[in-house]
Amino acid sequence: MKPLVAAVAVLVALAVGAPVQAQTPEIDALRARAEAGDAEAQDDLGIMYANGRGVPEDDAEAVRWFRLAADQGVGTAQSNLGVMYHTGDGVTQDYAEAVRWYRLAADQGYARAQSNLGLMYDSGIGVPEDDAEAVRWYRLAADQGFARAQYSLGFMHDNGRGVPQDDAEAVRWYRLAADQGIARAQSNLGLLYENGEGVPQDYVQAHMWTNLAVAQSSGEDRDRRERNRDIIAAKMTAEQVVEAQRLAREWKPTPVP
Description:
Elements: H1 24-35, H2 39-51, H3 59-70, H4 75-87, H5 95-106, H6 111-123, H7 131-142, H8 147-159, H9 167-179, H10 183-195, H11 203-215, H12 219-233, H13 238-250
Helix pairs in contact: 1-2, 2-3, 3-4, 4-5, 5-6, 6-7, 7-8, 8-9, 9-10, 10-11, 11-12, 11-13
């Protein structure tokens, strides 16, 4: 029986740019460069306005700076502008525009945009739903080590969407994402270990990965994952539970690209 897996839709947020605790002289210097036409400074300033870092949060101002940088061909700014159109922050929500900007960045090889463009095809938002095209974009981002795309690609293999159903491939991609700390991937990997799908059945590994997912979850996701962990624990010896808990405590995420 196939495990219940989390939904695939994972929107990748804005790229990280300017420092979180920028000081006034630094902001003034950044603004001067942005106003002089420095595209990277424009993108950084947009991120600061989008997140309220060192300046009052102002989505419309963020959009203005992202657009100036995006019009100069900066992939990160194009991706960020796509996110704003996708979410409707600072601009009227427009999925077709989100797709347009994601594609411009994705065509430059920017993994965040590739992952989000895959999501659009996956969900049929702004473009006709096309699982094969979603897989294509997810794979391009996943091959760059982008964790959210790795999770999404694992999900597609897990459910036979756009690719033949393949538990072993699902495990491979979930593990890469789980190793970078993606809770959904950890949870789904735990379920596959529990059921022995794509890997030999291993309750210790199942408990460990599910426990790691629980630790960074909240609300209904946490409740559901705690129930899954308890179901797994009921199948284990006390010694196995202790070992799984030790592995979870000692686990360290791999660096995120």
